[in-house]
Amino acid sequence: MAGGAVDTNNGVVPEIINFLNASPTAFHAVDEAKRLLKKAGFEQISEKQDWKLQVGNKYFFTRNYSSIVAFAVGKKFVAGNGFHIVGAHTDSPCLKLKPVSKVTKAGFLEVGVQTYGGGLWHTWFDRDLTVAGRLIIRESKDGAVSYSHRLVRIQEPIMRIPNLAIHLDRSTDGFKPNSQTHLVPILATSVKAELNKVAADNVSAESDGKTSNGKKDNDDKKHHSLLLQLLASEVGCKPEDICDFELQLCDTQPSIVAGALKEFIFSGRLDNLCMSFCSLKALIDSTSSESSLENEPGVRMVALFDHEEVGSNSAQGAGSPVMFDALSRVTDSLNSSTSKLLEKAIQKSFVVSADMAHALHPNYMDKHEENHQPKMHGGLVIKHNANQRYATNAVTSFIFREIAEKHNLPIQDFVVRNDMPCGSTIGPILASGVGIRTVDIGAPQLSMHSIREMCAVDDVRHSYQHLKAFYEEFSQLDAKITVDF
């Protein structure tokens, strides 16, 4: 191609761009994953019901609609055999609306938000922002009232967090915004909001603030009526029928393939939707043909968890029993005997904890240990930490490295400097909580936890190819390894 540009018309790259653009929140990421799985022939099951599984079939379930687990049962699977799992997470650092978000100051309508995770909050200033998330909607039909969960996303920019002019802040300490007082987005001016009151507001005033169900509506005291009207218009309901919501701010700029040679992806939420998508696509494609599960003795699984950015301690996080529950129920459903086989299955299982890695920054090279400098285009990064901030050990890293070598895929190593703190992942949580062998890996990226991150097109391909090969070949490779004998 002219100028050495990367061809992005075919393969995984356009698909991940579509996935990123469809997933402004964890709820939307799960919804998009669900759509892709159904299209690929996966059957949805519920944790609230008994499971009647069959070998050779493919299934998935969601929890809280912000975590999703999908799996394909090999045709040679018997209860007690292992699970081959790639785990990632659906959440990213962001600004979430407070339970009472209505803020009015100096003639402006503002929206109160709370910080979620460890974001680079200065990057949220001067961006064209909107809101997305889920609503709980009251619905009335034939005198009966029910409540539904509805995803919502306002496409156009409706908010902004403006920077202070440099003339009003001559400090030499750098930009250090106060997350309580400075990080408050502007929705509108009070004057314009008053002049442009929507008809629904007048109706509410005439009805003495009562809803269609005769209940006193206090939502306008908690949230700006303008915001509620925008949300209601988006989903096609009345503002007073919005009972509650979980909303977050998101950037309206779309994800794109960029750079002079079209070698990068510029996007929000690459950490960790990039790994989520690559693992999901790897599972789908490794189980797509009639014969793909013919000789598989294990269960191929992907688990995308919520709340990793805040420690995974929730009912739908990696610290919950969701992984153990899935393994237990699959084993029990396909167990014709009364013997307890889950413990044996766990010891035969393997988790790839896939979370984005820190690429070497050319302007901050001293932040990386000299012999461990992951580079873009260099393939997946195996993460090591002697203090178990990552769950990798010699056996698990060997297995993952061996798959790369067989397929001529690049592979890299990362160790944090001894004089710097080390982050962590879902890897140690799953390894210690469930007892499964685990390797921590991730694609290299820059600008981690910024509103706008970047990674390399090549590494998206490498990640997908590596994870697909893991699903297809782990059983045969693991059978050749002897450790606890």
- Total DSSP E strands: 20
Distance between the termini: 54 Å
Helix fraction, binned, reads: 25-40%
* Largest sheet descriptor: 9 strands, mixed
Give the overall silhouette.
globular
What value does the Rg take, in angstroms? Answer: 24 Å
**In what order do the strands lie side by side in the largest sheet?**
1-2-3-13-4-14-18-16-17
Secondary structure category: alpha/beta
Low-confidence stretches at least 5 residues in length (pLDDT < 50)? 1-9, 198-216
Q: What's the tally of helices?
A: 12
Mean pLDDT: 92
Report the portion of residues in β strands: 25-35%
Cofactor: Zn(2+)
Protein name: Aspartyl aminopeptidase
InterPro entries: Peptidase_M18 (IPR001948), Peptidase_M18_dom2 (IPR023358)
GO cellular component, one term: cytoplasm
Record keyword descriptors for this entry.
20 strands, five-stranded mixed sheet, nine-stranded mixed sheet, aminopeptidase activity, 12 helices, about 25% helix
Summarize the structure.
This protein has 485 residues and is an alpha/beta fold. Helix content is 27%, strand content 25%. The strands form four sheets. The chain has a nine-stranded mixed beta sheet, with helices on both faces. A five-stranded mixed beta sheet has the order 11-12-20-19-15. It has a three-stranded antiparallel beta sheet with strand order 5-6-9.
Walk me through the structure.
- The protein is of the alpha/beta class and about 475 residues long.
- Helices cover about 25% and strands about 25% of the residues.
- The chain contains 12 helices and 20 strands.
- About 45% of the residues are buried.
- Keywords: Aminopeptidase, Hydrolase, Metal-binding, Metalloprotease, Protease, Zinc.
